[in-house]
Amino acid sequence: MLNKLKSTFQLVLFSMIVLGLCTTVNAQSLEEIMKARGLTQQDMLAAAKTYTPTGKMDEYYCFSSGGQSGHVIAYGVPSMKLLKYIAVFSPEPWQGYGYGDVESEELLNQGRMRGRKITWGDTHHPALSETAGEYDGKYLFINDKANPRVAVIDLKTFSTIQIVPNPIMKSEHGSTFVTPNTEYILEATQYPAPFSNKYVSLDEFNEKYRGAMSFWKFDMKKGKIIVKDSFSVELPPYCQDLSDSGKKVSEGWVFTNSFNSERYVGGFGKGNTKWQDRLPFEAGASSKDTDYLHMINLKTAEKLFKDGKTTEINGHAVITMKTMVENNALFLIPEPKSPHGVMIDPSGQYITVSGKLDTHVSVYDFKKMMKLVESKKYEGKDPYNIPILSMKESLHGQVELGLGPLHTQYDKEKGIAYTSLFVDSAIAKWDYLNLKLLEKISIHYNVGHLVTAEGDTVSPDGKYMISLNKLSIDRFLPVGPLHPQNHQLIDISPGKPMQMLYDMPFPLGEPHYALLIKADKLKPIKRYKKKWFKNRVKPGREKVVKEGNQVTIHSSLIRSHYSPEIIEVNVGDEITWHITNLERAQDETHGFSVDLYNIHGSLEPGETCTFKFTADMEGVFPFYCTEFCSALHLEMMGYLLVKP
Amino acid sequence: MKTNGTKTIFLLLTLAAFLCFAGNVTAAEESSKAKVKQNDDTIGTAAEEDYKANYQAKVKQNDGTIAIIAGVINYVCPKIVPASTKICNADKPVESAVGIQKYMEQNWDKEEDDIEDAKMPELLNKKAALQFWDAVEQFKLHYPYREKAKKATEKEDWYNAFLNEEMAWQYLVKCASRGIFAKKIVDGE
Fold this sequence. Notes:
The complex is a heterodimer of chains A (644) and B (189). Chain A is mostly beta strands. Chain A has 10 helices and 43 strands. Chain A has a domain of 114 residues: Cupredoxins -  blue copper proteins (Immunoglobulin-like, Sandwich). In chain A, the strands form 10 sheets. In chain A, strands 8, 9, 10, 11, 12, 16 and 17 form a 7-stranded mixed β-sheet that branches. In chain A, strands 34, 35, 36, 38 and 41 form a 5-stranded mixed β-sheet that branches. Chain A is globular, with a radius of gyration of 28 Å. With 189 residues, chain B is an all-alpha fold. The radius of gyration of chain B is 19 Å and the shape is elongated. At the A-B interface, helix 1 of A face helix 1, helix 4 and helix 5 of B.
């Protein structure tokens, strides 16, 4: 038999050599391939700049919000290779997130709002933890616009470790952004609503609907938001939008812009209210030429909170606008119509604001703003008695960039910024110190956010920029009416025109914002330490304990068997099933699935998960490893036998 | 266990094929010769005399697999640890393998560090060594089952002798699987 196999193998080997020779004979030259595929020299250059051969690693991680999927997505740059979908607000079976294990169910339960479990999120803006204004690669934060929540992701494991619901907001947007040493995570409201959970008529919009900025205290050592040390600042019922934290000279201040400072309420469309004959929200919300950039003194707000100058609402400390104004801690500055981006430059002095309905980008000078604040020179007050600083006297200047400017990121080169132009479907490179447009590049199509390498830190890298486009239209093979989004990688190396390098279809929700961090800043672990898990099962200590209808199973798994493999219980038994993956080898993940019980776990090497369920169905239920873990993977199974 | 160069190369090339096909086919052939019969009382058991033949075939297969693993160890060992360590001994491949593991683990705090993060002495190819380390882990796990198999033969319990020998083979396959990773890495494949 062995001799026969040897002959067969030799035949196969010979065939491979012959095939190899044929391939060599038929090999095409680079020019022939370019001609056949219709590629230009520029295309070949782009390919060479992005192609990352097997075994080679990318230079950057990109962390992108996963939009409506409720996840965060990580991929490598410049290859644009997808690395991981990190489950945050939504259950995700591959990672065993939200499918029966106590640990992830507990996380998803942290995100309950008014007692209700929510199994999706509209993730918008990831933020990386920072030390001295630089990404430190330790934690990632992400918000949920739809159900105002903030989550913490541990970058040692690339998994969610905390979800914190906002007790006073009904929607949010300007989140997550962090202070330069990650003392606080910012979260700003989007649509005003009463802080209470009671019904309040829209007739009382101006009086009882409110916006807010929440400051979530983050403990870097514990890797945890400390809810009791967190607070919010009450804001007017404008639609607060994007936020950013001051840095260097502006450290200690926080900024958020807004739209609908008109406080317009729509109502358009035949319905059942008295507002049905009014024009839509979009008409009234952008009728003024300017809205308000909010300027919040965080240091003062923090002191007010610590001094107890707060009102408790839904168990959460809120500093009223009145208190903030009395303590010179809240100011407004007019900003161009319908703004959608506020970004602070690496020096902390210049603040770029774009008005979607203005072709100009406005650059504010923090030092000028502070002079007005310190001299108490106000040009008026808003209806909530908040001082308004002069726009003209706060501005460093304005530049006309194009149609629909939205967001700005910064370059390594001093004074250079990039701004997305939604309506133009382009990105503008410009000089915000000398107020000059330098160059534009077309993107495909309708860019929202953009990201440059470490572009919102105190020392951006330049090199790469990604345009996060809302529409892809004709860029990819058609997949029906719902198109993927398009992430376009652009080379922004100094001294040459911007070059489009790569289109990556993004097929899982609308990714709003993304961050690029140097790969070597992250130090993910390779496996869990068994001692981290109090319910871990040591090898040889596997057992099943039955007390009344309480059945506790202590089991382990390793290539390629569960121990024990057969479990017998009675209908109605309450099962607690601890499972430890005993593997010490890297990448030896095992799955655990019990059919019809909607259970699925992913057990990474060293990890222990606990599953709790009631054996409420009689029958025979095979369980098996869902990862192709070894040559004997198919044999890695067992039976849960539920007796009547 | 010493093998000559040509034979080693051929064995290395055919390792994957052998483990994936030859092992199973050989065992199947032997089983077929033994005409496995189903016992009405016990799940999956056959007549004792059939298991004796199955056991003997499995022992042959395991010995063959270990010989191939030995070839891999002798091939990979000098590419992982420097000659100055004198760890590699072609006459005693298993000792060489365990020697590599010990050499790697001398500064490893098992409670605190992943093996990848342990401060290791000089290695010629750390990436390959890490895969090799797990291969040795798997290899070590096959011993108790072969012991149990031998004990079962003393009682002429051929069914359990066969199953324990079979279980030992599972670990040898897992060892080979990781060993192939190590070989691919040292070969730059």
